[in-house]
């Protein structure tokens, strides 16, 4: 089934090491320099294709000949041995249409730009509250635990109707699920515990509905309790780890480039600055997995039916033709005044991030408010990156003001 490699296949890096801490692992741009589609080895020893060119990444993510169904026997997995954890009911991120579209449609109304715009005052209140607590009576803090994590966590808890008091528990579980170094046993335990937690919560919502997303899902008779729990887990994990790491990384990067901070203060340039941060940081470093359902000609190679591909958003987002140009810095540098709107940090095609209007609103409000309220913000010690996670980010960012 697998095409014989013509050049040595790249073992996919287990964690981020070397190179710029704000960029992807150097192995990916190095592979991109040799061609848009190259060979790589997955942790279990199977070969896959590393798709690094922007046109080819778009094709993989929008062409129905590539499947996102994790139940496919050769779907590429980034943790060796994890295939035994795949259930018959994956969440819709890992399903194809029509089932993917059926479930996603039930949520689109909750995350529409128009709906999210009405949440802005609430998000602003949450951001201000987190900053009040962080700054009260002190002049140093860890920006990750005191600001970047609580803000998206409070927002998604409010929307879903998950009690924020439980955040330590679900944050610990989502960390385990996102950790590429977790053992299969640790993954199984975390997966079971978080599903049980969401199943219990959904049962309570069915009995006593409130004005939140989980109550509305629980009330539907066209979803099983298992489906509702899977959707809840997806939203809870996707809804806070991603945005939290984007807030922390963006702050650290801006502190390294203070001359660009004024780009956040002007309402005319703030949305563009956030798009540039999303583009440059592209926190899903590991790429998006898909499997070919038929033979496909892609970037000069033939991807055979059954072969796995990893669509690398980070290299696509550094394409000079798409994002470079006269008057702008190179695409591996921050330039908050460039037009980065067509970036792929939220993916592309039918699985493109459902929560992007919410993520954008949270990032704009969090970053603008942080630098406005603490104009003297600066680093205060050794920062630590989250190098082992499927979602790249920061473990700590000591700051003072
Ligand atoms: C900066 C923050 C975020 C980033 C960078 C991000 C990135 C992504 C990416 C790359 C995908 C596509 C995955 C694929 O095609 O395999 C995705 C899908 C998804 N995201 Fe996000 N995300 C962010 C925030 C959020 C938030 C706040 C939510 C929810 C409330 C969310 C919910 C989802 C869901 C439900 C999907 C699955 C969509 C589908 O399969 O149709 N994300 N996200």
Automatic annotation (TrEMBL):
Pfam family, one: p450
CDD domains linked: CYP105-like
Region (Disordered): 1-27
Coiled-coil residue spans: 173-200
PROSITE patterns in the cross-refs: CYTOCHROME_P450 (PS00086)
InterPro entries, sorted: Cyt_P450, Cyt_P450_B, Cyt_P450_CS, Cyt_P450_sf
Keyword Lyase carried by entry: no
UniProt similarity note: Belongs to the cytochrome P450 family.
The protein's name in its UniProt record: Cytochrome P450
Organism encoding this protein: Kitasatospora xanthocidica
Lineage, top ranks: Bacteria, Bacillati, Actinomycetota, Actinomycetes, Kitasatosporales
């Amino acid at each position: 089934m697998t095409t014989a490699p013509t050049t040595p296949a790249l073992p996919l890096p287990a964690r981020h090491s070397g190179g710029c801490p704000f960029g992807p692992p150097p192995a990916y741009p190095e592979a991109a320099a040799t061609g848009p589609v190259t060979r790589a080895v997955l942790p279990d020893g199977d070969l896959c294709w590393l798709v690094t060119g922007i046109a080819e990444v778009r094709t993989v993510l929008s062409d129905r000949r590539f499947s996102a169904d994790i139940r496919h026997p050769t779907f590429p997995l980034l943790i060796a041995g994890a295939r035994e954890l795949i259930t018959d009911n994956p969440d819709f991120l890992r399903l194809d249409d029509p089932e993917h579209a059926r479930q996603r449609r039930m949520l689109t109304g909750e995350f529409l730009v128009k709906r999210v715009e009405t949440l802005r005052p609430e998000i602003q209140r949450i951001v201000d509250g987190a900053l009040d607590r962080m700054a009260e009576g002190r002049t140093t803090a860890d920006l990750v635990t005191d600001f970047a994590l609580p803000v998206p966590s409070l927002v998604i808890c409010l929307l879903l109707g998950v009690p924020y008091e439980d955040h330590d528990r679900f944050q610990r579980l989502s960390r385990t699920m996102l950790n590429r170094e977790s053992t299969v046993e640790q993954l199984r335990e975390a997966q079971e515990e978080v599903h049980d937690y969401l199943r219990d919560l959904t049962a309570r919502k069915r009995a006593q509905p409130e004005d939140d997303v989980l109550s509305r899902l629980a009330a539907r008779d066209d979803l099983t309790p298992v489906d509702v729990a899977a959707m809840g887990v997806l939203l809870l994990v996707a809804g806070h780890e991603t945005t939290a790491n984007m807030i922390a990384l963006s702050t650290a990067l801006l502190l390294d480039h203070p001359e660009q901070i004024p780009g956040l203060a002007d309402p005319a340039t703030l949305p563009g600055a956030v798009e540039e941060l999303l583009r440059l940081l592209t926190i899903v470093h590991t790429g998006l997995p898909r499997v070919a359902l038929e033979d496909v000609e892609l970037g000069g190679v033939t991807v055979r039916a059954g072969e796995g591909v990893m669509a690398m958003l980070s290299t696509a987002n550094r394409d000079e033709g798409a994002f470079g140009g006269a008057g702008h810095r190179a695409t591996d540098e921050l330039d908050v005044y460039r037009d980065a709107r067509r970036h792929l940090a939220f993916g592309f095609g039918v699985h493109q991030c459902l929560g992007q209007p919410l993520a954008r609103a949270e990032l704009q409000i969090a970053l603008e408010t942080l630098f406005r309220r603490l104009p003297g913000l600066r680093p205060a010690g050794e920062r630590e990156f989250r190098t082992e996670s499927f979602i790249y980010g920061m473990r700590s960012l000591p700051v003072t003001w």
